[in-house]
Design a protein that fits this description.
Length: about 70
């Protein structure tokens, strides 16, 4: 009986890992499909509003984070 329980747990873990691998593969291939189809634009070609611009204050702040 002990072997049956452990094989069920192993089966569940293998199924969960296989599901996670399949999901990540789908996400990765979907991401490359969007990039290859031209769906992602460069930062200089955006026509929308500018939501963030790097200022001198921001540069100083980020330098303090990484040093």
């Amino acid at each position: 009986m002990g072997n049956e329980k452990s094989s069920g747990r192993r089966g569940f873990l293998l199924g969960a890992l296989a599901g996670a691998g399949a999901t990540s593969a789908i996400i990765l291939t979907a991401g490359t499909a969007v990039v290859n189809s031209g769906g992602v634009t460069g930062s200089g070609t955006s026509t929308g509003p500018i939501l963030y611009s790097r200022t001198k204050e921001a540069e100083r702040y980020y330098k303090t984070l990484y040093t």
